[in-house]
Amino acid sequence: MDINELIQQSVKAKESSYSPYSKFRVGAALLSTDGEITLGANVENISYGLSMCAERTAIFRAHLEGKRNFTAIAVNSDSNEIISPCGACRQVIIEMCGNIDVIMTSKSGDSKVMKIADLLPLAFDDKQFRNL
Ligand code: THU
User: Fold this and answer.
1) What helix, strand, coil percent values describe the chain, rounded to 5?
2) d(CA 47, CA 64)
């Protein structure tokens, strides 16, 4: 899979964004090991705190579709700055996807790739949970 194709899919995913409050569209494209791509976009609510990020909509959707093994997620917005996943999404990415590549992009075509474990050092995981 060409990284640029995955980025293009995240740009396409952005079209499904429901973001009337922030007016900040975000798209995500999650790549499975078998080459399948799952798209996600941010979905907001008038009760702002209920809003959901693009990365998590893609991951939850993929999970419900039975997908379990992933290699990368690309994220795009309309910002000219590269955007990176929020803290909540980082925690969800590392648990549901493992140590995948996070491809962070800008509208103008810049990109930066980092492993999720480098974006979220010392993530809370099952080694700590209930290890009383
Ligand atoms: N947002 C995402 O969907 N992903 C990110 O990586 C950053 C932020 C969304 C949440 C909210 O709908 C809007 O962008 C503004 O914060």
Assistant:
1) 35, 25, 40
2) 25
List, in sequence order, every residue forming a beta bridge with 67; answer none if it has no partner.
none
Domains of the chain (ranges plus CATH)?
3-130 (3.40.140.10)
- pTM for the full predicted model: 0.97
What residues form DSSP beta bridges with 112? 104
Atom index in ligand 1 nearest the CA of residue 83 equals 6
pLDDT in tens, 3-34: 999 999 999 999 999 999 999 999 999 999 99
E strand segments, 20-83: 26-32, 37-41, 70-77
Ligand 1 interacting residues, C-beta cut-off 6 A? 19, 22, 24, 26, 42, 44, 51, 53-55, 75, 83, 85-86, 89
State the catalytic residue, choosing from 5, 55, 65, 81. Answer: 55
Helix (H) or strand (E) holding 59: helix 54-64
82 φ, ψ (degrees, to nearest 5): -65, 135
C-alpha of residue 132 to centroid of ligand 1, in Å? 35
* Residue with CA closest to ligand 1 atom 1: 53
